[in-house]
Design brief:
The protein is of the alpha/beta class. About 50% of the residues lie in helices and about 15% in strands. It has 11 helices and 8 strands. It starts with a helix and ends with a helix. The relative contact order is 0.15.
């Protein structure tokens, strides 16, 4: 598959993202406009912009994703559930929850399961729940497998690699482990690669992994996403070049 074909495939799987600390309404309007022009899967933005995006993207077919417990993955379940209720009420179609990975790494895995399950209860029937594992902090094969299994057992609709806010974000190694765990799950679970994916070649590596493990028919927006801000530029350049 040539770069142009890969780029076109990636665009339809893209969560076009602006989680910059200095994001403002002008930047979010521009993001939504670009999303509609390119026909991406979703935009991913800070919670304070959800209502604005619902007005901008109404009837566009583009989903609105936002983040909770982001980016540090704190352990206050009540606060996270309140964040989730607020963004769902505002119209979010997808909620990207950072698993409380620091507590999980310290051995408090019940906290993570309870937070995911509580968030799922609010999202169920209203929004898709994507659980961010922060694999750059989990590091080892065993931890990534165990965190993936815990998130799936607690109700995650998607597993997502990273926040993009730490030094090590998405890697093909972590993606392979997560996809293999998803493959072995007893229900349908999606996958989102996010953080540090900037080129068509990098994105192609993730597509090949997903195709080989899950099958090419599985890799569609309902099951597979890229979370990125600059990847759309690279894809559009590849399409235009050819």
């Amino acid at each position: 598959m040539g770069a142009r074909d890969v780029a076109q495939r990636v665009i339809q799987l893209l969560d076009l993202t602006n989680l910059s600390d200095d994001a403002d309404e002008t930047a979010i309007d521009r993001l939504c406009q670009r999303a509609m022009q390119a026909h991406v899967a979703a935009v991913c933005i800070w919670p304070r912009f959800v209502t604005r995006c619902t007005r901008f993207l109404d009837h566009s077919g583009i989903s609105i994703a936002t983040v909770v417990n982001f980016p540090h993955g704190g352990g206050d379940i009540a606060d996270v559930l309140e964040q989730t209720r607020r963004v769902v009420a505002d119209g979010a179609d997808e909620v990207d929850l950072v698993m409380p990975y620091v507590s999980w790494l310290r051995g408090d895995r019940a906290l993570a399961r309870d937070m995911i399950a509580g968030t799922k209860n609010i999202c169920d029937g209203n929004a898709l729940l994507k659980v961010i594992l922060e694999t750059g902090r989990l590091r080892t094969h065993e931890r990534i497998v165990e965190a993936s299994r815990d998130a799936i057992a607690a109700g995650a609709d998607f597993l997502k690699t990273s926040t993009g806010k730490i030094r090590v974000s998405a890697t093909p190694h972590a993606a392979k482990i997560m996809l293999m765990t998803i493959h072995d799950a007893d229900r349908q679970v999606g996958f989102k690669a996010a953080g540090g994916i900037r080129t068509v070649r990098q994105a192609s590596n993730y597509l090949r992994l997903a195709d080989s493990i899950m099958g090419s028919a599985w890799v569609r927006p309902e099951n597979f996403r890229f979370g990125a801000s600059g990847l759309l530029d690279a894809c559009q350049q590849a399409v235009e070049k050819e």
